[in-house]
Amino acid sequence: MGFLRKFSKQTRKLKSLLELTVSRVAIARKPRLARKSIASGDVCQLLSLGQTDRALQRVEQVIKEDNMLEALGIIELYCKCLVKKADQLDKPKYIIHLNVNVLGKKTNMFSVQGMQRGGKGSGCRPHICCQAVQ
């Protein structure tokens, strides 16, 4: 029997929503590609007919569609990257065990689940939990 990975409910939901987003982005891309190719063909025809004002409008449309296609491509790549990295959300990055005596009581200090965002300009810092051991 193979090794089965268990993911948290939030991670499974995140992965399924990201996969749905990738498929929806692909669907949204198709009509934009068609509009871009039609508009770029129209630019050539309008310029050959000498209608520069209308050709300029079509060029603007081509640029807008091209920008939107680039944005959709970035969103799709980001979602795919998150899907690949989603399994790392359930894994701790490190575990540090420290035994410290505080006022005569032995305290077990250890980090929990990766990094926690610190204050302004401090970057990331480990999230430390303290539990008194008797």
TrEMBL record:
Entries under PANTHER family matching the protein: IST1 FAMILY MEMBER, PTHR12161:SF74
Gene3D superfamilies: Vacuolar protein sorting-associated protein Ist1 (1.20.1260.60)
Ranges in coiled-coil conformation: none
A Pfam family: Ist1
One record GO biological process: protein transport
Family membership: Belongs to the IST1 family.
Name the UniProt record assigns to this protein: Uncharacterized protein
